[in-house]
Fold these 4 entries.
Entry 1:
Amino acid sequence: MSDRLETPFDSIEGSYEYVELLTEVIAETRRDVEADLAQAERDGAERRKQALLLVSFNLSKLESHMTNSRRILNDLRTLRRLLLDERRPLAASAAGH
C-alpha cells in the first residue's frame, strides 16, 4: 500500500474532472446569489443588494477562471495524447530495426 494519498490532482484527467465539478458548483451558487439578489431588491435591502452584487461579480470572475482552466487542462490532455501516440510508432519502428 502506498503512503501517498490519491488526490484529484494526480492526473490531468482528475484535475479536469475536479475543475469541471467546481465550475458546476460555482454556476449553481451564482443562481442562488441571483435569487437572493432579487429578494434583496424586493425587500429594499440596499446594503445587502450591494454585497450580493459584489459576490455575483466575484463568482462570475471565478467561473471565467475555471472555464479557462478547464480549457487549458483539456489542451494538455490532447497534447499528451498526441505526444504519447507519436512515441508509440517510433518505439515500434525502432524495435523493428
Entry 2:
Amino acid sequence: MARVFLDTNIFIDVIHRKPEILASLEGHSISISPLSVHIYCYSFKKKVPVTRLQSQIRLFEIVDLNTKIVDKSTEGPTNDVEDNIQLHSAVEANCDIFLTGDKKLLKLGYFGKVKIIDHL
C-alpha cells in the first residue's frame, strides 16, 4: 500500500469527471490539500452545503495547511505557489507518490522522496 497524494486536477477528476480513477486507488492511503477542495468549489461555482462533496472528501486524508508549508512554498521548487503548496503538502503527509496531470510537475520526476507520476 502506497501513500498517494492527489494534485488538484486528479482530485477533480476523481470526484467530478472520472470516478473510475478511485478504483485504481483502492488499497492506497490517499491525501489531498484543502486547496483542492477550494479550487474545485470555486471552479465549479459550488455553493455550500454540498452533501455529495462532503461524503466524497471523507475518502481522503486532508493535509493540514500550516505556516511551515506556506513558508516553504514561497521559496519553490516552482514559480507557482499553488503547485508548491501541493508538493510540500505531499512531503508533509509522507507520501510516496504525487499523482498529477500537470506536465510541468511531471518533468520534475521527484520532489524529495515523492515520485511524481500521472497514473498508478
Entry 3:
Amino acid sequence: MNALTSIAQSGLQAAQTRLGASANNVANGQTEGFKRQTVQATAQPQGGVVVTLSRAATEGSDLTQDVVDQLSAKQSFAANLAVLKTADQMMGSLLDTRA
C-alpha cells in the first residue's frame, strides 16, 4: 500500500507545481519580457512522477494554455485524491478485525 500512496502523493505534488506555474503565468503574462513557465512531467520506473520547471523559448503569454493547465491540475488533484481515499478504505478493510 505504501507504494500506492507514494505514487498518488507525487501526482498531487505534480498537480500543485502545474497549478503554481500556470498561476504565475497568468499573473505575469502582461509583464514586458516575461517568458512563461512550463512544466515537464517524467514517469519514474518505481512509480510516481517527477516534474521540472523551465521557461518558454519565446516571450509572451498563452492564456488559453494556462486555463487548460489549471483545469488539468484540478482533475489531477481529484484523481489522486480518489486513489488515496480508496487506498485508505482498502487498508481499513484489511485491518478490520470484524471483516
Entry 4:
Amino acid sequence: MTKHTSENIDITTLSNGVRVVSETVPHVQSISLGLWVGAGSRDEAPAIRGISHFIEHMLFKGTQKRSAWEIADSIEARGGHLNAFTGKEATCYETRTLADDLELAVDILTDMFRNSLHDPEEMEREKRVVIEEIKMYEDTPEEQVHDLYEQILWKTHPLGKPIIGSEKTVSSLTRDSIVEYMATFYTPERIVVSAAGNLDHDQLVKLVENALGDMSGKAPKRALKPAKPSGKSKRVPKRDTEQVHFCMGTTAYSKYQKERFTLSILNNVLGGNMSSRLFQEIREKRGLAYSIGSYTRTYLDAGHFCVYGGTSPETFQQVLDLTLAEFENVRKNGLTEDELTKAKTQIRGALVLGLEGMSSRMNRYADSLLAFDRVIPVSEVLESYNAITHANIGEVANKVLSTEAQTLTALGPISRA
C-alpha cells in the first residue's frame, strides 16, 4: 500500500492496485463518494453493445444481503442521494451523503459492485426498461443527433458506438455475458474510489481495503488508436418534428494533447456560452434558433469539436452558412485580444466555481487518475490556459474549423442526403 499527498489531496494505492483518492474539506457537512471503473462502451464487443450501461442498471437490482428497495432506501432514508452513469471510457456509481454516513455509503456501493445477484428474471424486466430508454432517445431528436454525429464521424472506431447499445444487442444479453464482462474489466487496476468532503482519508482507505482489498485480476490493455473522421455526412428525414436538429464538427484532440486547452478557448468564443459569436449572431441578432452553441469532447485517443443547433427547415441552410462563415472568419482573422483575455477569465472562473461542489471535485480526481495516473493540479491547468497565444489559436482553428473537414448530421423534416 502506497500513499501520496499533494494539494490537500491524498492518494493511496492498495496492494492489489485499487486506488483511493480524497480531499478533506472540513467546512462542509457532506461527502461525495464515487466508485469508478475504467470500463465503458469503447470496451464492448459488437455483440454486447450496451452491456456497460446495462450493468450500471443491474447493480441497483439487489445483492445477496439487500433488495433493490433496500439499496435505494438505505441512502435516501438518511437524506442522501444514490446514482450512476456510464460513459465511453468509464462508469461511476456515486453517493452524496452526510459526513456521518461514510461507512454506510462505502458499504452500499461496494456491496452493489461485488455482490449483485444479476437475477435472470430481473434482467428480463430491466431489458424492457433499457429498451424503453432507447426508444425515448429515438423520440428526442435533440438528444439522438449527438450520438448519431459521433457514429457518423467515427464510423469504424470504438468511440463512435452508442453507449446505450441497440434493442437487438440489449435483448441478447445474458447473465453469463455480464459475469464475464465484469470479470474481465471490473478489475483492481481499473478501479478508483474517489471522495471529497468532510471525511478522514485513512478511514476511507480502511473501509475500501476491507471491501475491495481481496480483489484480483487484470484487464486487457486498451488498444488506443487515433480516431480518423469518416469524411461523411448524413441527413435523416424525421417528419414528426418541427425543427431540424443538427451537429456539425470534426475530430480534434485527445486528453493527452495540449492543444485541447486552445480548443477550449476557441470553443468558448465561438459557441460556448450566451455571449459567444454564434449565439449572438444566430439567435440574438437574427432570431433563427432557440438552441445554438458548441462543445468539445476529449477521450484517451481522440476528441471532437461540435456545433449543435435546432432551427426551422426553411432556415436550416442559412444557419449552416452563418456557422461556416464564422468558422472562416476565425481562420482568417483569429480572435481579438479582448476575446482571448475574456475567454481565459471565463474558463478560469468556471473551473474554480465548479470546484465549489463536492461532486465536481470527486469527479475531477477520479477522471484525472484514470487518464493520467495522477491528479493534475488546478494551477497546472490554469497555467496551460494562460500560456495560449493568438498563434496557438490560429493553428487549432486551421485544423478544426476547415470547411472541408466538417461532418454534418441532421435530423428533422428535411430531404435525405
